[in-house]
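quick one, 254 residues, struct below
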Amino acid sequence: MNARIANITTRLDYLGLSILSNSLESFLSDPARKDETLVESLHALLDIEYCLRKERSARTRIKVSGMPSMKRIDDYDLGWLKGGLSAAKLKELSTLAFIERKENVVLLGPSGLGKTHLMLALGHHACLNGYTAYHMSCRDAVDALKRAGEAGRLKRKLKWLTKPHVLLLDEVGYESLSPDQASMLFKLINARYEHGSIVITSNKKFGKWAELMSDEAVATAMLDRLLHHAHVLSLKGDSYRMKDRIKVGAVNFE
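---
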């Protein structure tokens, strides 16, 4: 390494551009670069640092998101559904414009239609594209807020839960909530109202939420905020999890 390149790498290290520093010598010695313009070479060199940093950041966002598994939008078998989500709508959601607009996505339908798959896929896609996401089940969310309230830290916890660009709230309606639990869930949705997106899954139609929440007033106030800026997708079809067994004749829903 000549003195000038050594000086450049030292300065790159000082500026925190360690990836460029480690890549510079091999980059400059690459014969494929000899016919490039200065702008083309600079673009290619900066891409080394940019792409690796972007990949590392995405991995970190995914790691801290709490998502139990990684799902991809392209892996969802949209053709299995019998209604509720079109290819055009899924493509629209994939742009993640709903996050920029702080809109919610509500995935309704019976168990087995891939609601959680879609929720996690949107969360994963968000993390890869520079957004932060955080996953909680409804039960875990209300329990965490209850513990925070008992410790006198409810406001702090709610503030923390408003920080992710998108909150992934799973399994609303799989268990009935006590009045205290329903109140905590309302506080969470209210805290994020027009501050950040929520992707929520539920196996209960909205008409059942009053019964679910044990309080019609709380359910109404919650839905008012949740649905004000929302994409509501009522999925219809047979169990998504059973599709492979149905194909081989192991299960028949007729």
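The longest strand covers residues 166-172.
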